Amino acid sequence: MNRFQILSILILFQFSFAQEMVTSNPFLPVNNKKEIITIKIKNPIKIDASLNEEDWKDVPIAKNFVMFNQENGKPELPELRTEVKVLYDDDAIYVGAILYDNEPSKILREISERDDIGAADFFGVFINGFNDGQQEFSFFVSASDGQMDLVRTTENEDTSWDAIWESKAKITDIGWVVEMKIPYAALRFSEEEKQTWGINFFRELRRNRQMFTWNPVDNRKGFFTQQAGILKGIEKINTPTRLFLIPYSSFYLNSFGKDKSFGTLKGGLDLKYGLTDAFTLDMVLIPDFGQTRFDDKILNLGPFEQIFNENRPFFTEGTDLFNKGGLFYSRRIGQRASKYPEISETEEVIDFPNTIDLVNAVKVSGRTKDGLGVGFLNTVTKKTDVVIRDVNTGNTRTETVEPLANYNVLVLDQRFNGNSSVSLINTNVTRNGNFRDANVTATTFDLNTKKNTYNLNGALKYSYVNNYANFQNKNGITANLGFGETSGKIRFSVFGEYVSKDYDNNDLGVNFQTNYYSISANANYRLLQSTEKLNSFRISLNSFAQFDKATNYLQEQNFNINLNLTNKKNHSAGIGINIDPFEKYNFYNPQAQGRFVIFPKNYGMWGFISTNYNNKFAFDINPNIGITETKGWWYWGIDISPRYRFNDKLSLIYRNNFNNEYQDLGRVDQVGNDIIFAKRDNQTLETSLEGKYSITANMNFGLKLRHYWSFSENNSYYKLLENGYTEGYSYTDNANQNLNLWNFDLSYSWWFAPGSQMSFLYRNTSGIFQNTIDKNFVYNTKKVFNHEDLNHTFSISIRYFIDYNQAKNVFKS
């Protein structure tokens, strides 16, 4: 039996495992769309969690919540009931909620910074202005008066989205009360005279880890967004001009090693303008991202660049449309220069830039009443030159490493049938002069059956890179297709993909592997209702195989089975087994056209334990171990993360990650036509500490520190043969690698008004890379704190939110 037959049998086995079981839920009605009517207010509402204004009386109540998790659909207990009312005016909707609790002293109320609920009870409202089951704007308030907001679609949750809204929470002797004012500027809806919105209300009883919704959400079905209730009653609203200005000013005091300290003053403006009730323009003039979180860099021993999370607010807020098709990786904008200058043996480059400055950034996004979503993003980056000096003569010259560049993303996304969509996406990068330009176009579809039981999705993408310098035009395509069952206890999916040799979307996206075809499959079983001993249980079987298109050689593979569960005390645990049962022909590690290296069969397993975060002391532990069929090549690692909550204001999380790999085979150099590999021992020790002290939900101190030390020690060297195997080689250079990194952030943030923030940040960093390895941990720790290697930055930033309508009224008065 050959390799392809075995792969086919394993995949077919997954489908046989995934036969549907008919399940029913006695708690849930067949038609579960509740309705609530809102009333227009006659007098101003003060957001103080009192609900004592006259307008709150005699308003229809949303009640009779049911459980979402554990016992899906079970009615709430009378002593833990929730009652919600909704009002509106021409500016906003108002939500008032009474969350009854017969033991108010047990309400968890940890104070956290914005967008972090922490260990606290919370209440939320989910609003879909088009009532199409596709996108919800979600607003949460914790029992400690904290705020969190996000945008949820049928595909993902965008927690980076931030809106400007008001809320107040207060604990009482009968439970706690929430009052919210959500401006129309934070929502999207059509211009109909009579509005019909999708709405749902959500409550988490944190001490029991139980979640409740007003409109029942059947966990046998695939999508949360499509199971909302109905809000009616909003009529003839005259929405104000949605124009918001956010000017900012910041000051940076920098000290780089032994260099003289210097200060930098910056200023700029963010602008948000509602083109219509459904479309919004966001603009940044002279962006400043100096206080974004540091990147967790690593010693990268692989053939591909390391990818970092986006931390710049403009590129994280409200970008769900731009993520369609997977073409947009925003860190490409301003990430690095297009080229490194060619220099002679006697020349050196002075201050090669790590990033490219942005001139401005603009995005427009929204959706029409007919379900057409439109997203447009444009960014311009500066022309950047470097100085090159001849070390013998002292003469200097300049060379452009990044010209003036324009980055564009355009997305058209049509929703239909309440749960399906098709999209057209285009990304374009144009650089001035004889530099690389690129264009990528894709069409995608996501189709679901009316009852959300099955899903069919796919994409077709085309890339073009122009001829420049000594390079010729390059055209490539990729296509994929997936099908799966999305409801019931047992679910399955299968996915296939083809990528041509010259497909390249790396100017505004990420795609490292090309010239292959692949197939993957998944089957999983889950509990839909809790049992006597378990709150949740899931077991999943996954398979993946990727083949080089030119040779049909197997170049990637994995078969794994994973199990995870949560017990009645809300402690979680899991275990998994990974199997690569065949040799792999890796075409990427040699970093040479047409060459490949053969990697052995390998087997591994992992596990985790995560105790209930409600407890003052909790911990996570994640061990893993694996072995290959090559003698001496094996690995193990462990990640331990204890956390302690001293009180509702102060908490600390300590993480310690230790990984070892012995006799790993990796590329280290190329000598002439010989590609040199080494058997090497790799070790990584990463330690981090994260803490916060919250005076109030709007005033927080934060601490983030990370020490990363990793080395790769080569034991013996080998030459790669044409057949993919290796033979001994005499190599005399020192190709060892040792990376030592330190990052420290101490911050203070104060939201002194809605949308307005003052922040202070002290940061010191250090990074040392060398070929000499000293395995003494204390020595390496001391070295990274060497004064000459430490960079210090102290910064102050103030952002002030200005609502055009409020400012207009002030000037009138």
What does this structure look like?
The protein is mainly beta and 813 residues long. The chain is 4% helix and 53% strand. The chain contains 4 helices and 45 strands. The strands form 5 sheets. The chain has a 24-stranded antiparallel beta barrel. The longest helix has 15 residues, at 3-17. It is globular and about 85 Å long. The termini are far apart.
What structural category arises from helix and sheet content? mainly beta
Taking all Cα atoms into account, the compactness measure Rg is 29 Å
- What is the typical, i.e. mean, pLDDT? 90
Which geometry do the CA atoms define? globular
Biggest β-sheet strands, sense, barrel:
24 strands, antiparallel, barrel
The number of helical elements comes to 4
List the uncertain runs: 1-23
Helical fraction equals under 10%
Q: How much β-strand is present in the residues?
A: over 45%
Q: How far do the termini sit from each other?
A: 86 Å
The count of DSSP E runs of length 2 or more, i.e. the number of strands, is: 45
Topology:
Blueprint: H1 3-17, E1 35-37, E2 39-40, E3 66-67, E4 82-88, E5 92-100, E6 122-128, E7 135-142, E8 147-153, E9 157-158, E10 166-172, E11 175-183, E12 194-205, E13 210-213, E14 229-235, E15 243-256, E16 262-274, E17 279-285, H2 313-316, E18 347-350, E19 358-367, E20 372-381, E21 384-390, E22 396-402, E23 405-416, E24 420-431, E25 438-448, E26 454-465, E27 474-485, E28 490-499, E29 516-526, E30 534-548, E31 554-567, E32 572-580, E33 584-586, E34 597-599, E35 602-610, E36 617-628, E37 634-645, E38 650-671, E39 674-696, E40 699-720, E41 726-728, E42 737-753, E43 756-770, H3 777-784, E44 791-799, E45 802-803, H4 804-812
Parallel strand pairs: 1-14, 2-4
Antiparallel strand pairs: 3-13, 4-5, 5-11, 6-7, 6-12, 7-8, 8-9, 10-11, 12-13, 12-14, 15-16, 15-44, 15-45, 16-17, 17-19, 18-21, 19-20, 20-23, 21-22, 23-24, 24-25, 25-26, 26-27, 27-28, 28-29, 29-30, 30-31, 31-32, 32-35, 33-34, 35-36, 36-37, 37-38, 38-39, 39-40, 40-41, 40-42, 42-43, 43-44
